[in-house]
Amino acid sequence: MQMNRQSITRVNEVGGMIWSLLSETRTVHELVLCLQDHYETTYQTAENDIHLFLQQLEEYDLVEIIEVVEKESAPLPYRSAVT
């Protein structure tokens, strides 16, 4: 639910799983591995789907990118922006 936009967003089973995983800070790589553990999918397909889903969540300010300072090449983690 997005109170500032007065809308409700529905997600499918995979989206719900990703959303629940984002209760903790996770990288895209970690999310991909979790999806691969539960569904028969390739790394590339899972990664593409996750990026698309995260972009949609970002558009609604439902997730935020956490900047990582230690390593420049490290993938950026995401977490839920809703508390």
Structure explained in plain terms:
This protein is globular. The chain has a three-stranded antiparallel β-sheet. Helix content is 45%, strand content 11%. By secondary structure, it is mostly helical. The protein starts with 12 loop residues before the first helix and ends with a strand.
Secondary structure topology:
Blueprint (H helix, E strand, L loop, with lengths): L12 H9 L4 E2 H11 L4 H17 L3 E3 L11 E4 L3
Antiparallel strand pairs: 1-3, 2-3
Helix pairs in contact: 2-3
User: What is the beta-strand fraction?
Assistant: 5-15%
Number of strands: 3
What share of residues is helical?
40-55%
Q: What is the succession of H and E elements?
A: HEHHEE
Radius of gyration: 13 Å
Kindly report how far apart the N and C termini lie. 12 Å
Q: Brief description of this entry?
A:
The chain has 3 helices and 3 strands, in the order H-E-H-H-E-E. It is mainly alpha-helical. A 3-stranded antiparallel beta sheet has the order 1-3-2.
What key phrases describe this protein's structure?
single chain, three-stranded antiparallel β-sheet, 83 residues, mainly alpha
